[in-house]
Amino acid sequence: MPARIILIVCDGLGDRPIGDIGFKTPLEASRKPAMDFIAANGVCGIMDPIAPGVRPGSAPAHLAIFGYNPYEYYKGRGIFEALGVGVDVKPGDLTFRVNLATVDDHLTVIDRRAGRIGGDDSRMLFHLLNDELKIPGVDIYFYPGVEHRGVLVIRGVGLSWMVSDTDPEKDGEPILKCRPLDKGVEAERTAELINRISFESHKILSKAEINRRRVSEGKPPANAILIRGASFYEPVARVDERYGLKACCVAGGSLYKGVARYVGMDVVEVKGATGTYNSDFKAKVEACMKALDSYNLVYMHFKATDLAGEDGDYRRKIEIIERIDDALYMLLDRVEDCIVALTADHSTPCSIRTHSADPVPIAIAGPDIRVDDVGRFEERLCAKGGLSRIRGLDLMPILLDIVNLTHKYGA
Amino acid sequence: MPARIILIVCDGLGDRPIGDIGFKTPLEASRKPAMDFIAANGVCGIMDPIAPGVRPGSAPAHLAIFGYNPYEYYKGRGIFEALGVGVDVKPGDLTFRVNLATVDDHLTVIDRRAGRIGGDDSRMLFHLLNDELKIPGVDIYFYPGVEHRGVLVIRGVGLSWMVSDTDPEKDGEPILKCRPLDKGVEAERTAELINRISFESHKILSKAEINRRRVSEGKPPANAILIRGASFYEPVARVDERYGLKACCVAGGSLYKGVARYVGMDVVEVKGATGTYNSDFKAKVEACMKALDSYNLVYMHFKATDLAGEDGDYRRKIEIIERIDDALYMLLDRVEDCIVALTADHSTPCSIRTHSADPVPIAIAGPDIRVDDVGRFEERLCAKGGLSRIRGLDLMPILLDIVNLTHKYGA
């Protein structure tokens, strides 16, 4: 029987005890029979996605969970966004996330999202930049993303991703100067280049016919770009080469598709998978079940738990957990012939509305598992499980060992 | 009172749940009051001999358990076999494991073990090779081992252990060409040398009078050697230098004696300790008790649990565990004045008949221990113990700390 692994990551699932609900975490306060079934029929534990006390960004956490040491492989977020929206990057490309934004004459940001511009306006403005923004010595490409978002790719020699963002991260602040983040001549040169792109794109966008029309319609003009998340693209050995597993990703959010593509997973596009609260969880689980016919490893990502944590809304987090659980129910009889690993990429406690380093629960169910006596999938109960406390980087080796796809070290 | 540590390693002891015995592991299904006594009077945990998800070979696992990082010290298996059979190796020696084998005229292997040749025939054939196989620039020595086995030592300059085996590992396949495993000129030169030794030894053995006699007696001739496990010998700091412990080994299998000698342990030879199913476990435990009069650290190894796992025979594994337990019984009152550590070098689940990375149980009993509430020595119960989950490399530092032979780090 070929190896089959389902790796389910509920983003930001872990939390801290909340007084309003009797000092339970949202997970502990949820009704979640499917998750509890996986815990009850599996070996449980807690996991530090990176290391104890390290608050993981989503991209490095996912790299670790996929078995790629983030301290070696993580070189900025831009590349994952680029791959996530399907940009055909080349080795050595410098990639950035960009926003179309509205600025005043003093380059102070009025609206970081230019009224959440999107659709044709956004596409045509990025097009315009591609046509008109030329800087000798490098090739510059813009790609539109969702709403006001896009991706900037710079191709050339002597570039560095050690440069700061121009995005001030809030309205009312001026566009920042890009600064080198190390002492290398490459970083200095790249920072100058970014500042020039920032300036030139403002010039080009300010004159755009589309923006004149938008102003006449009472909409904010998208007359500047904000640049962030510098990233350097170096291809890595794919999961199929490293693990002998044909792998795919079922996710809504582009970052997660991007990390999956980065490690060589195929991306299964699912109608209704949006990476937001309204995502169609059942459609995703159905896609996951279907993917098991042609893939050995199916990675399935749910974003909404993290969004609820970042909104500080524990009621919503509970509701989302219960909706995910409801969708997972149809997957449970696959525990007979698949390894099902259920975990999170980090905690996003509602109390702090951001990522924390609190370890996340993990349960691994399926054939040949040393099932322990933990009966519910919860942070504090899982801590008593047979896995004890592991790290994100341990997960893939453990899964590969269970399905006997690993090799003996030495003799 | 001088420090006294007994380190008991049951090879391949860990297992996975087996449906036929109610989803218990062989250890969980065994009656083993002595092991349970050590667990009940000790602190328990689970241990990844190398790291989570890493399937350990026996030699690297033992290096780790002895406190020698295998990623630094493990350079092939041959050296441990050589030291195990008592070869007087010199720094820089290249060592290999060899089999006497039967091949046809096309150098296809008919019997990898030449009918499990041994005794005088084997000794004299290796002798013949020592007399007749001469290659300018290097010294070549053969040493007979148990049955068809032997050791090849090559002494010379510019040699590398980065070469492949000539042993096809199964009958019906041709003797393999030795290939360099890195791009260095040393590896290329060594591979040529091994191929020449392979060829010349076939020529010499084919003409041997002993083989003519064997054929006339209807026995398979030992007319070739199969070479594997290239290894480079570099002496390391001994356990007595590193830990201030006079240490010895009680084992049957030559590999385990070899690893022990490699780290500077004396080897106590025990009559009846064979490293096989029929080994005299009680004689070994008696030898261990006696050795406590003159050694601070006694490492005792039982091989048969691993053999039963590799045979996929859980009934036999249970029987072996119970026989080992019976022998360990006489040792229990030493928990009063010794540290007794009971563990395994890896799991060998009966279901997969090979090593796995499933963590192994560990219990440490003796004076001054934080005894926990784990009452039985079993994989899943030990996971709830006071040691939590440790690595093989952690074990020696923990034991040294308990007997107060460690030094404060910093002030």
Model description:
In chain A, a hairpin with a 4-residue loop joins strand 5 (139-144) and strand 6. The longest helix of chain A has 22 residues, at 185-206. Chain A has 411 residues and is α/β, with parallel strands linked by helices. The model of chain A has no long low-confidence stretch (mean pLDDT 96). Chain A folds into 2 domains: 5-70 and 238-402, Alkaline Phosphatase, subunit A; 82-232, no CATH class. The radius of gyration of chain A is 22 Å and the shape is globular. Helix content of chain A is 33%, strand content 19%. Chain A is built from 15 helices and 14 strands. In chain A, strands 9-8-10-1-11-12-2-13 form an 8-stranded mixed sheet, with helices on both faces. In chain A, strands 3, 4, 5, 6 and 7 form a 5-stranded antiparallel sheet that branches.
Strand and helix map with partners:
The structure is a homodimer of 411-residue chains.
Chain A: E1 5-10, H1 26-29, H2 33-40, E2 42-48, H3 58-65, H4 70-73, H5 78-84, E3 94-103, E4 109-111, H6 119-132, E5 139-144, E6 149-155, H7 185-206, H8 209-216, E7 224-232, H9 239-243, E8 247-250, H10 254-262, E9 266-267, H11 281-291, E10 297-302, H12 304-310, H13 314-328, E11 339-343, E12 360-365, H14 379-382, E13 388-391, H15 392-402, E14 408-409
Parallel strand pairs in A: 1-10, 1-11, 2-13, 8-9, 8-10
Antiparallel strand pairs in A: 2-12, 3-4, 3-6, 3-7, 5-6, 11-12
Helix pairs in contact in A: 3-15, 5-10, 11-13, 12-13
